[in-house]
Design a protein that fits this description.
The protein is mainly alpha-helical. Helices cover 46% and strands 7% of the residues.
C-alpha cells in the first residue's frame, strides 16, 4: 500500500467518526428540546417538603401559572403582609379597577379560598395569605367601652315594676 491510500483511508475513518459524533449531537439536541418543552409545562417554582412537591389538603400542588394575576396577587400580598381589598389588589398588580376585573380576580382567588389553599378572606371583598395574622376589622368603629361589663349598681328606683 502506498502512503497516499493509507492517508485516504485515515481521512475516511475520521470523517466517519465526525458523522457519528454529529449524529450523536443531533440526538442529544432533540433530547434537550424535549426536556425544555416538558419544563415549559411545569410552573416556575414549586414548594418542596421532605423531598416531595408540597401538596394541599386535596393533594393539589400549590403553584400558579407564570405571570398570572393570581401569582401577582400572591406576590403582592406576601410583600404587603396584610389583607387587602380587591380594588387595592387590582391597583397593586397594575390592572384597572373595573367591575369586570374585580369579579374576575375575586373569582380566581376565591377558588383558592374555598380549597383552603394559600388565600383567606378575612373581610368581604378582601383577601390575605393564610399565613397573614388575623387582625380586627379597622373599618368597624366600636365604642371605647365595648365589651366591658358595667359596674354600675342598680338602685331600687331603676327596677321597672
Amino acid at each position: 500500500m502506498s502512503a497516499r491510500t493509507d492517508i485516504e483511508k485515515r481521512i475516511e475513518k475520521e470523517k466517519a467518526k465526525i458523522n457519528d459524533l454529529i449524529s450523536q449531537i443531533e440526538k442529544n439536541e432533540s433530547f434537550i428540546l424535549g426536556l425544555q418543552e416538558a419544563l415549559k409545562m411545569l410552573p416556575k417554582e414549586m414548594e418542596f417538603e421532605n423531598g416531595q412537591v408540597k401538596t394541599n389538603k386535596d393533594n393539589s400542588k400549590t403553584s400558579f401559572r407564570a405571570g398570572s394575576d393570581v401569582e401577582k396577587t400572591y406576590n403582592l400580598l406576601r410583600h404587603a403582609e396584610k389583607s387587602m381589598h380587591i380594588s387595592e389588589i387590582l391597583i397593586g398588580i397594575g390592572k384597572e379597577d373595573t367591575k369586570s376585573n374585580r369579579l374576575s380576580l375575586s373569582s380566581s382567588i376565591s377558588r383558592h379560598v374555598r380549597k383552603g389553599d394559600l388565600f383567606k378572606r378575612p373581610f368581604p371583598n378582601s383577601f390575605a395569605l393564610i399565613e397573614t395574622p388575623a387582625i380586627v376589622n379597622p373599618t368597624l368603629d366600636l365604642p371605647p367601652n365595648f365589651g366591658a361589663e358595667e359596674t354600675k349598681e342598680k338602685e331600687p328606683d331603676d327596677i321597672p315594676f
